[in-house]
Amino acid sequence: MATNSIKLSLIFLLTIFITSKAILHDQLKETNMTLYFQDWSGGPNATVLQITGHQDHGILSFAKFGSVFVTDDPITQAFDKNSAEIARAQGIYVTSALDGKISHVLISIIFTNNEYKGSTLEIQGASPQFERVREVAIVGGTGKFRLARGYATFETIHFDLAIHYVVIQCNVTILHY
Ligand SMILES: *[C@@H]1O[C@H](CO)[C@@H](O)[C@H](O)[C@H]1NC(C)=O
Ligand SMILES: *[C@@H]1O[C@H](CO)[C@@H](O)[C@H](O)[C@H]1NC(C)=O
Ligand SMILES: *[C@@H]1O[C@H](CO)[C@@H](O)[C@H](O)[C@H]1NC(C)=O
Fold it and tell me: pTM for this structure?
């Protein structure tokens, strides 16, 4: 009796833990987007703060190994900072190369627009932060972007050093269901 119920519970365990099905490749969708990160690294409405490491007269030390930053940038659908906000870019990044050239980026894109509200994309990887174009992996997503994978390119297309303001154009290419 005891042996039988052990066998039964083993079978039950197997049925609940091993469920799989073939996924058709053609169910995958490819989505491209161009997003604009509105980024202020200083001033009264800064969207980036340095949380460890020394600042030099209010200038954040992006090139210093070990510096950690937290960010909450508005993402707009066009270059103009007054264009519609469609998402936020929230996360942290750490200058992770001894020579200061690489930033390890951990950023969530949290959509707020009608089409994708509540869905997110996760960006993670090594960003060669002083190159013109930086490419970082997209390692996952939620909501409309469940099981997403892909890549994002970042290019700083405008800067105004006096007010610590830059606009970063981010092109996203993802495969998702
Ligand atoms: C998305 O962009 C990539 C890279 O530029 C391109 O190869 C692909 O055809 C585009 N896909 C769509 C659906 O526009
Ligand atoms: C900062 O934000 C406040 C509130 O939105 C705004 O009134 C002010 O003009 C902003 N300051 C700058 C320098 O952008
Ligand atoms: C990003 O996409 C825009 C068009 O939406 C294009 O002009 C730009 O060259 C692309 N940037 C990169 C780095 O591919």
Answer: 0.87
Residue 82 CB–ligand 2 contact under 6 Å: no
Residue spans per domain, the chain = 30-176
Contact 43 CB / ligand 2 (< 6 Å)? yes
Class in CATH terms, 30-176: mainly beta
pLDDT digits (tens, 9 = 90+) for 33-65: 999 999 999 999 999 999 988 777 778 899 999
Beta strands in the chain (DSSP E): 29-40, 48-52, 68-76, 85-95, 102-111, 120-128, 133-142, 149-160, 165-176
What's the gap in Å between 165 CA and the centre of ligand 2? 13
* Residue having the nearest C-alpha atom to atom 3 of ligand 2: 45
pLDDT for 134-167, tens place per residue?
999 999 999 999 999 999 999 999 999 999 999 9
